[in-house]
Amino acid sequence: xxxxxxxxxxxxxxxxxxxxxxxxxxxxxxxxxxxxxxxxxxxxxxxxxxxxxxxxxxxxxxxxxxxxxxxxxxxxxxxxxxxxxxxxxxxxxxxxxxxxxxxxxxxxxxxxxxxxxxxxxxxxxxxxxxxxxxxxxxxxxxxxxxxxxxxxxxxxxxxxxxxxxxxxxxxxxxxxxxxxxxxxxxxxxxxx
Length: 192
Hints:
This protein is α/β, with parallel strands linked by helices and 192 residues long. The protein has a single domain, classed as 3-Layer(aba) Sandwich (Rossmann fold). Helices cover 43% and strands 17% of the residues. It contains seven helices and seven strands, in the order βαβαβαβαβαβαβα. It has a seven-stranded parallel beta sheet, sandwiched between helices. The longest helix is centred in the first third of the chain and has 16 residues, at 27-42.
């Protein structure tokens, strides 16, 4: 008699990391970005990122590559020409036509999203994912790495929107926050 045992399928196989193409003013931002890349690689979670070899995005990708991680970068011709040379050590880089196509491709390749410190591009990517959650197009979770309370102001604005009737309930969104890369990984692994 042969028994078939269904093995729990891993839900989080691939995670997009959104973060700045700059380093920011706090050295902890780069330290934590590096640790996130290491932890994803060591836990066999594919990193999807913006493809650039600059700032925090280059740091997270470089750390994943150095630790044997599976990485895929998505960039555009325009972004590469202006500011973000592609990461030479990446296993794969896809170059698409525009920013919206870039965001869509990163969404398609990812099971979840990690939000590290960043600027307007990071905020744009984040709000696209939250809007998709709001209208029911996505149930993919969002994880904030709140290094030195970087995202506290965003949290207050989110609650302010609810208090003023523009968001029904902040708890309707699939958002979690961590203060350290290790806590972030624990949240991701809970969903596996």
